[in-house]
Amino acid sequence: MTHHFGPHFLQIPGPSAIPDRVLRAISMPIIDHRGPEFAELAQTVLGGIRRIFGTEHPVLIFPGSGTGAWESAVVNTLSEGDRVLMVETGHFASQWRRLTEKWGVVTDFIPGDWRNWADPEAIHEKLTADTHHQIKAVMVVHNETSTGVASPIKAIREAIDDASHPALLMVDAISSLGSLPYEHDAWRVDVAVTCSQKGLMLPPGLAFVALSSRAIEQSKSGGMRRSYWDWSEMIEFNRTGFFPYTPATNLLYGLRESIAMIEEEGMTNVFARHDRLAAATRAAVQAWGLEVLCANEQAHSSVLTAVMMPDGHDADALRHYVLENFNLALGQGLSHLKGKIFRIGHLGQCNELVLLATLSGIEMGLSGLGIPHQRGGVHAAMDILKRRA
Amino acid sequence: MTHHFGPHFLQIPGPSAIPDRVLRAISMPIIDHRGPEFAELAQTVLGGIRRIFGTEHPVLIFPGSGTGAWESAVVNTLSEGDRVLMVETGHFASQWRRLTEKWGVVTDFIPGDWRNWADPEAIHEKLTADTHHQIKAVMVVHNETSTGVASPIKAIREAIDDASHPALLMVDAISSLGSLPYEHDAWRVDVAVTCSQKGLMLPPGLAFVALSSRAIEQSKSGGMRRSYWDWSEMIEFNRTGFFPYTPATNLLYGLRESIAMIEEEGMTNVFARHDRLAAATRAAVQAWGLEVLCANEQAHSSVLTAVMMPDGHDADALRHYVLENFNLALGQGLSHLKGKIFRIGHLGQCNELVLLATLSGIEMGLSGLGIPHQRGGVHAAMDILKRRA
Amino acid sequence: MTHHFGPHFLQIPGPSAIPDRVLRAISMPIIDHRGPEFAELAQTVLGGIRRIFGTEHPVLIFPGSGTGAWESAVVNTLSEGDRVLMVETGHFASQWRRLTEKWGVVTDFIPGDWRNWADPEAIHEKLTADTHHQIKAVMVVHNETSTGVASPIKAIREAIDDASHPALLMVDAISSLGSLPYEHDAWRVDVAVTCSQKGLMLPPGLAFVALSSRAIEQSKSGGMRRSYWDWSEMIEFNRTGFFPYTPATNLLYGLRESIAMIEEEGMTNVFARHDRLAAATRAAVQAWGLEVLCANEQAHSSVLTAVMMPDGHDADALRHYVLENFNLALGQGLSHLKGKIFRIGHLGQCNELVLLATLSGIEMGLSGLGIPHQRGGVHAAMDILKRRA
Amino acid sequence: MTHHFGPHFLQIPGPSAIPDRVLRAISMPIIDHRGPEFAELAQTVLGGIRRIFGTEHPVLIFPGSGTGAWESAVVNTLSEGDRVLMVETGHFASQWRRLTEKWGVVTDFIPGDWRNWADPEAIHEKLTADTHHQIKAVMVVHNETSTGVASPIKAIREAIDDASHPALLMVDAISSLGSLPYEHDAWRVDVAVTCSQKGLMLPPGLAFVALSSRAIEQSKSGGMRRSYWDWSEMIEFNRTGFFPYTPATNLLYGLRESIAMIEEEGMTNVFARHDRLAAATRAAVQAWGLEVLCANEQAHSSVLTAVMMPDGHDADALRHYVLENFNLALGQGLSHLKGKIFRIGHLGQCNELVLLATLSGIEMGLSGLGIPHQRGGVHAAMDILKRRA
């Protein structure tokens, strides 16, 4: 029954489909990472990625995945026994917490139902209660890739300020950077992490960490035993366009290209495009009579949409069906959501027709498997998307 | 208003979108076309293309476009003053006729309204009337790329046989080969031509001519002054895997890959896929309340569908609109059909979701420009496409 | 014994090795050749190629090989029975003559020993003797790819002028353009032809014809039956950035890139580089005690060097040996030079180290096969090449 | 003075030049790392890399650089305060020691002059003296990339056995794997690390760790706080072809291709090729009258050759000169060898002509800068390389 012919629609919330320009860029012959041409490349991408983060502070680029960036944030700023405040927005917040605890840090985890954002008020309350300032950092996921819920980082910054609490603000911007507005300096985030394979439209293999002066200061005296993910040598080497160990040069070629593409389109336009595609997706889900996982109207992610399956129907059967029949890959439900939701990625280079193809595949899948729904999802999405013309 | 972000949907009836595997193949470093490695490549593609044509006779591959293949068919078999029978199926039949006349050949052109196929009975009648066998060749376009009408080559072969007429059968298989069933030897076609950028899913730049023993025989004594498009040296050189002048090596790399892809999918499956996509397209057009140009139910092309615009509406305005707004390229109306029709290509590597994306773009365009239509085209297409699962 | 591991050294005088930038460019997805993006591409390459030719007149780009460009020159300007003056510089001059005669043109072929250039004085003599101006064209190969001899086009122009003869000047610039200085307008050449796979560093598949006002004028009234290679429609369509039939779009992407590369390096620098590499090659040949085929010191080609084998030794055995053992492809002797010479291409993207690798391979081959020679060729070449630093 | 035209010769001892086939492979569109097609890819490369290591135990593949693989070896097997035995073979042995100490491990560092291998007898002596078995691991660099000295891992294994010492044997195979014979299981190595950009001919970005049963056992109870570089989850996930966090999919495409290339050539042939190229390089150095850094005839590396500059001459000036003038990148001297040596990489896809081009560039550089030497290095290398034919 499988065919898999023709273009593959990779509509998972990352890795996102990689633009042809980027794929060609990463396939250029490699150069000496200790030579002058490399230094030029490095300066270009280090400067560019700072613009994407909205920061004038260092952004570090490690060969690695986003999980490594999480580790880097933790081991450079925290010490064993330190206490941090985290919020259970979903699977990835839980994973970051798990990683943090592996390093001996005590986490205060504000519970959540995986359908809502990190609530600034709850954070404010916790911090206000922490009169001895034992909480060293507030660690929040900006866009929960497992649920399609985006948290209000700016408001969380304000909550910390209102509480006059000295905790660092550390943000997982893994699936938000390049897709949702993110203002590192303006929001005074101390550490933000991301990776290459989401809004930056690259293959996986690069981990990014954006810093603040406070974070750098803290890393000098504090942090844990570390080597690979250490900031100090990276900052030092980067000054002249080099790296303390071999960088992933070909991915940096790709990064140069993807930053150029984002800036050619214009970041405001990029964000507006994501918003439009997300609105169309939600309209489709509503038309089908299905439910979006995110239960907070203000918190809908423009990066992905998680859709709840009707009771008694398996999301993974649907995912399998559309992959086999329509060459369409959707994201699975993670952890306790496995089988209960599927996730539609509409990030990166996604455009109107790619989204409509995706929604068509889903609508045919719902029909083909006899999953209760109403027709009209694609229509509803078209109604949103045609308006902009 | 233009954005052109994300994947481009090139849904013209050729050049068709090129598979990633083929694009990577053509970008490999070039080799000496007089060396042993080349000979191996040549034997592989010359053997493969014969399988695609369904022939054991030589198939010649020239650097050039399909127009050159037309010329090659004419100058190797006909002489100035010769008479041939052609059928006005549309723009490309007319262009082929024009080219043929440039070479001093007299054409008997059975008139047509560009909405129907080449009628075997009309051909039979003409041949029967030609008692002195002045007609040297019957020249027919298998799939009229300008109209989306496919002609019945097998029946035309039978009409010639029934008339006991010695005319050669020459077929333009430019947009049919690799997309519609075509049986060179079984149908006893004498000369068939095609090019790289349609069902073979390659960039333009290769012209193909498939021969029969009779055609080869005739070319030895007859034909006109010629050099580039001459068959004799090509046949001679090809025997050992070489070419009389520099071949387009990198495109041959691509050809090796595209033949492999077609045979991996299976030619029967390839044709069935084209049929299914075409049926879905026609269902969409009907649902919109628009009219397909092809007026003969038996003659609908599975390669492309030409759609008539409601009176007073310009097809090119629609084409411009969907290109600007949705990064979708549709085919224009050619010659007197300019502005009156648009053409949807659904050939090559097209699959279900690519087609639904295309139809979505058209439906949004019809709506965005206020062109009278009913909604539901995409739905209707989904109803066809979901069935196969 | 074969290994063929690692980089292949393709040092034939065309196709020349293709730069990575060009290979990546031709592998980008294809676009509609009737759309606005294509028109922009076409205008860019049509403008660029005029700069490379040094002309403000049209340069036409056909899908095809250089052989087609030859044909285009002939059929647009000459008629059956016309007389032309050609010079036997080598295999390709002979082939061009053969093609010209196939078209019914009478050729006056000044004989040559394949070791010298087209002599302006001999041409002057022939033209002066042609008091009735029966000679319609002087047709000369600029750089004889089969022998490594370059002819003095400027002096030939002057010879024609001195004879006050109205013959058109038609030049085969196939292996010279982009590698040797060529000034179409300044030298008042009427028709010049080239192809993609030599100095333009592209895959084969594009044929170019540069024109003059006189040539265009002549083509309007004269010439032979023709269609594919006709100039008039091409000129007409090109005005708006389009083509009368499907162009080889992906190769045009490559052309855009290769023109950019040539202009980034600077044409003067490109020519100087070719001169330097050629001088080093000749120094190597001399050091080996072998003889360069070109017997005229002023006529050495900077594109390739043809080397004569000592009597009793087979050049093709050497070529086979270095291909099998060192992954090095050299050009063979053509026609009666088969086995007697081998040709070293040093054109296109060739640089110092590529050349020295090539010469090393040859020196090891000479030694490995026991061909009489003195050591030191590579040394001699290094002595030339190191000086520029 | 800079030109940088034509092919770049990247002859540093890693990243090594990447084969065209690998570059094309890594540029294919990405797929879902949680889907069935990925699982197939993963099983293929996990199986293949075990064959390259010569092991039936797990080999783990992390997104990261070789430095990360070092860390992974340390944090999974050792605990703070543990004692290990290391040998000062050069810069990278020193760096690995530095990293190990950052993790609180006490290192016993057998001093060396950076011109010799890790001496099995010295190791035996140390272990024999360690009667209380405080040494938990012997950590050795197989091929010292900074010096061009290879150490005898098999003999070191025997030294440990002879001492009846339970220390783990941990080997840095970073620049040896795929270039020098390495037999993980046969030599009973416990942990070996490598990365993608040396003998595996890939871009940097993958870190590999090969294990033994003992190492795995030890990691279960011991090791330090860790997350990213932890073995247990990786082993667990890999069983079904998946990874605990996002793998560097496109590099895995490349790995599949490079393993195929190595196995097509045959590992024995690969090693023999490296040996031959290295012998030729040493012959060239000797002919120049320069000195190879490696002072132990049995320890010459076949991966790279480090060359000592005559007193008073700066190696980096030479490196700069050949890069500017001949587009040739050589490796620099590291740490206290900076300016005193240059390193010639002859690994990966290097072949005879690439090496001779490299040696020619060096010989011209020596001459151009007036560095005292005798001519004839290239000649001497040719004498070695031509023999195999």
Automatic annotation (TrEMBL), chains A, B, C, D:
<dbReference type="InterPro" id="IPR015422">
    <property type="entry name" value="PyrdxlP-dep_Trfase_small"/>
</dbReference>
<dbReference type="GO" id="GO:0008453">
    <property type="term" value="F:alanine-glyoxylate transaminase activity"/>
</dbReference>
<feature type="modified residue" description="N6-(pyridoxal phosphate)lysine">
    <location>
        <position position="198"/>
    </location>
</feature>
<dbReference type="InterPro" id="IPR000192">
    <property type="entry name" value="Aminotrans_V_dom"/>
</dbReference>
<comment type="similarity">
    <text>Belongs to the class-V pyridoxal-phosphate-dependent aminotransferase family.</text>
</comment>
<keyword id="KW-0808">Transferase</keyword>
<feature type="domain" description="Aminotransferase class V">
    <location>
        <begin position="32"/>
        <end position="333"/>
    </location>
</feature>
<protein>
    <recommendedName>
        <fullName>Serine--glyoxylate aminotransferase</fullName>
        <ecNumber>2.6.1.45</ecNumber>
    </recommendedName>
</protein>
<keyword id="KW-0663">Pyridoxal phosphate</keyword>
<dbReference type="Pfam" id="PF00266">
    <property type="entry name" value="Aminotran_5"/>
</dbReference>
<dbReference type="GO" id="GO:0004760">
    <property type="term" value="F:L-serine-pyruvate transaminase activity"/>
</dbReference>
<dbReference type="InterPro" id="IPR024169">
    <property type="entry name" value="SP_NH2Trfase/AEP_transaminase"/>
</dbReference>
<dbReference type="InterPro" id="IPR015424">
    <property type="entry name" value="PyrdxlP-dep_Trfase"/>
</dbReference>
<comment type="pathway">
    <text>One-carbon metabolism; formaldehyde assimilation via serine pathway.</text>
</comment>
<dbReference type="InterPro" id="IPR015421">
    <property type="entry name" value="PyrdxlP-dep_Trfase_major"/>
</dbReference>
<dbReference type="GO" id="GO:0019265">
    <property type="term" value="P:glycine biosynthetic process, by transamination of glyoxylate"/>
</dbReference>
<feature type="binding site">
    <location>
        <position position="343"/>
    </location>
    <ligand>
        <name>substrate</name>
    </ligand>
</feature>
<dbReference type="InterPro" id="IPR020578">
    <property type="entry name" value="Aminotrans_V_PyrdxlP_BS"/>
</dbReference>
<keyword id="KW-0032">Aminotransferase</keyword>
<dbReference type="GO" id="GO:0050281">
    <property type="term" value="F:L-serine-glyoxylate transaminase activity"/>
</dbReference>
